[in-house]
Design a protein that fits this description.
alpha/beta, Rossmann fold, single chain, globular, five-stranded parallel β-sheet
Length: 186
């Protein structure tokens, strides 16, 4: 398998979020040939069409970071049955100005993580709706809705459940294969 660089986005801005803990666990679990690196969104200004003529430096940095990766992974909570505002803002910033989207044709995947039982289903599917417009081919299977996530980590943020570790490894392997298929690598 070819080596792929995946930029990951953590939908929660909290430094102690379960989504951030899961993203760090994914970095440790990543199979050979899959390198994960965070693309931060905390310092992005709120998108305004006024920026289309001259993006502020954090917005330019975001678009450059997206351009430098082979694929993107979103690890997100669900806020009010949708995507957190910071993550939606990053999607908007990366897609503009119209016709110059950094997201175009980037293979994508979503893991939604929640302390609740349905595992962020709403946020997961709202992101997928955006992928259609952004022309981002999304990994369809396995779907990843992780509920009850507060109990998945010890005090040092290590995964505590072997079944979750196995599922996440399977997910990452499927994503690596998906990226290869979409980018024509072998």
């Amino acid at each position: 398998m070819s080596a792929f660089t995946v930029g990951y986005f953590v939908g929660s801005l909290s430094s102690t979020s379960i989504n951030r803990k899961l993203a760090k666990a994914l970095v440790k679990l990543a199979p050979e040939g899959l390198a994960l690196r965070e693309i931060p969104i905390r310092d992005l200004p709120l998108y305004s069409q006024d920026y289309d003529a001259d993006y502020p430096p954090p917005a330019r940095a975001l678009k450059q970071a997206i351009g430098e990766v082979d694929a993107v992974l979103f690890v997100t909570p669900e806020y009010n049955r949708s995507v957190p505002a910071g993550l939606k803002n990053a999607i908007d910033v990366g897609s503009r100005p119209y016709g110059k989207s950094a997201w175009d044709r980037k293979p994508a995947a979503v893991i939604s993580v929640s302390p609740g039982a349905i595992g962020g289903f709403g946020a997961n599917h709202h992101l997928r709706q955006s992928f259609v417009f952004l022309n981002m081919p999304a990994l369809q299977q396995p779907e990843a809705y992780i509920g009850g996530a507060e109990g998945l980590f010890d005090q040092k943020s290590n995964l505590t459940q072997e079944s979750t570790r196995k599922f996440l490894l399977s997910f990452l392997n499927a994503f690596a294969g998906w990226i290869g298929t979409k980018l024509g690598a072998s």
